[in-house]
Amino acid sequence: MSEQQSQEQSEAVRLGTFRGLIAQLPVTLRPSLNQQLGQWDMLFPFEQNRLAEFLGSVESFQPAALDSLTQPLRALERKMGVAQWGFSTDRDTVENASMLARSAYYAEWRRAVQQIFMVVDNAARNSAPAQATPTRLVLLILPEALPTGPQTAWQEISPRGHEIRIAGDSRRLLELMMQGQSGQPGIATLMARSESADSSDLWLIDAEAKLDSLLSPATPAVASHLSYVALAPFRDELLAGLNTIPRNIEGADQIIAALRQKDWKRWWPPELADQPKLRNFLLELFLTGNGALIFSNAFVEWGASEALRRARPRILVVRFGMRSKPKPFTSIAIFENQQRISSLPDVNDPEGSAIDAAILARYVWLAASRYPEQEQTICVCISEFQNSAYVIPLTAASPAWSPESTVTPEEIYTWIAAQLAN
User: Fold this and answer.
1) What are phi and psi of 324, to 5 degrees?
2) Is the whole model's pTM more than 0.85, yes or no?
3) Domains with residue ranges and CATH for the chain
4) Coil/strand/helix, residue 235
5) Three-class SS state of 140
6) Among the listed residues 323, 321, 322, 327, the one whose alpha carbon sits nearest the alpha carbon of residue 345
7) What is the DSSP string of 17-68?
8) What is the rounded CA–CA span in Å between residue 178 and residue 109?
9) For 59-102, what is each residue's pLDDT tens digit?
């Protein structure tokens, strides 16, 4: 038996053990866990490790202790009548969510589920060896075309941060981050030199195609790079499929399942040809809604939030952009393709885009703040229109510059590079 075959056999045994552990849990806990296990090869390393740690912790409980922990949820499932629902245990479905939400015990059910996950996660955390955590970066770009005001650009991002003025052209910082300068590498090269060169450690999410244009052909291919513009053919085809969903829950689950199984090869941009995990990430991202299919800045924010949740990247670069004004007599609420349904020309909406981007930039940081890694994360938000930046240092660190300081793009880049080297 070859080494690869031995590894595959070992992995199959491991996943079989995981399935057995899931089968021991209450019925309503199983869909999400089984769905992740069914997509094991499509999970990012962080997701695989988290699922393995959770189920390993479940396995560590003595049978009596596990029964005691899960008994309140099992009793609640009996009161809810879950056994009579036809509840899917293979994956999360719209129908599952609907049945749970309609139950008079829904709030109590949520609390019971949270309690189980908290206890199991705490047990896993207490048994895990301590590890050094590297400094992380969230870089948010509000491009020059968006007329962000001095108040709206930084309003309530974080009380720990402060504004600095940029001496020179603020657009230079993004170039430095992507390409580096003499003696200092760009972020892709920096990540390629690190111990982990997995592409899920560096994410570039762009409303337009600016980030791609700044990457040189010699840049190491270690980034998960998503561009709203480049995804246009796939977005249009998926949107057409979603708009065939009848207005009932059963039909929605059937069509969503069919869309997951469809061969999308002809609609993917070439750069995603060899990126099955990213393709799966995008499909799931768009199927969850939140406007990502029809608004570029919603795509950027929701994509960044999901990348943080699912991959915990060490570096996340997010660039917002210009969107068109919504056209009259179209139905954004049900995700109609405005370019196809209306003959009116597209018209840019700089003011609306600026408001969207400022609000959604804050949402990205709030998403990052949900996780323990936030304490080791710096955030730099650039308003190219204002030629200023908002800098959030590490939780326990002093500000790099005093408020209202004037700093060059080169100085900001050098500071970021030094932080990431720690």
Assistant:
1) -85, 155
2) yes
3) 3-127 (no CATH), 136-421 (3.40.720)
4) helix
5) strand
6) 327
7) HHHHHHHTS-GGGHHHHHHHHHTGGGS-HHHHHHHHHHHHHHHHS-HHHHHH
8) 47
9) 999 999 999 999 999 999 999 999 999 999 998 888 899 999 99
Structure tokens at 89: 């245990």
Residue labelled with tokens 């990457």 = 215
- DSSP structure class, residue 181: B
pLDDT digits (tens, 9 = 90+) for 183-203: 777 787 777 666 555 668 889
Distance CA 331, CA 338 (A): 8
Strand partners for 381: 140, 390
Question: CA nearest 153: which of 370, 353, 303, 398?
Answer: 353
d(CA 268, CA 125): 39
CA distance 318 to 392: 16
Residue owning tokens 């450690």: 201
Ramachandran angles phi, psi of 226, nearest 5°: -125, 130
Helix (H, G, I), strand (E, B) or coil at 334: helix
Distance (Å, whole) CA 207 – CA 197:
25
